[in-house]
# Entry
Amino acid sequence: DQQVKQNSPSLSVQEGRISILNCDYTNSMFDYFLWYKKYPAEGPTFLISISSIKDKNEDGRFTVFLNKSAKHLSLHIVPSQPGDSAVYFCAASGTGSARQLTFGSGTQLTVLP
Amino acid sequence: NAGVTQTPKFQVLKTGQSMTLQCAQDMNHNSMYWYRQDPGMGLRLIYYSASEGTTDKGEVPNGYNVSRLNKREFSLRLESAAPSQTSVYFCASSEMAGAGDQPQHFGDGTRLSIL
# Structure
């Protein structure tokens, strides 16, 4: 069973608007959440993370929100730019058997000029 | 800054052939990882090495072996390749395994096709 789920395989957004990418998790042992960005023919690169003791973390145009009670996190990109077009992976790690990163299946974001 | 370097970038094998994928990092990281990425499934952990001299199984270890040659290098071996092992393989490294606040750094992948 998928412990980290990204239910939207793709998302298209107009340049300048907000992009919202969603991620749900099922394992209560997860206590750290990360977003990675991946361009074609390249490896994933770290984008932003959040600890379970916070509910928001911001870095420039990128903000991650965590709702622990709903086991849900989201990545907001404002404003969206064509260079943001990529696959975005949500990942989570925690303690014990959940120590290693577990990835979601990814969301392809396309920012239209 | 090379970061994580994987070789080769592409490879085609026949069923039953063997192959070793190479990975090296120059960030002096303690931990290294091998993942495979298949369509619609994200990245799945094959094996990892928390520190030099140790290796552990991940989510999908069957059909693979690994060697942590030294602190810099971590290789993945397919002893008898099967079509189900057709995938894109990523190597990654981090300062410490299981430390959520220390992101993993990835190589650009090896695209492996097994006929």
Q: What stands out?
A: The CA atoms of residues 57 and 88 of chain A lie 17 Å apart.
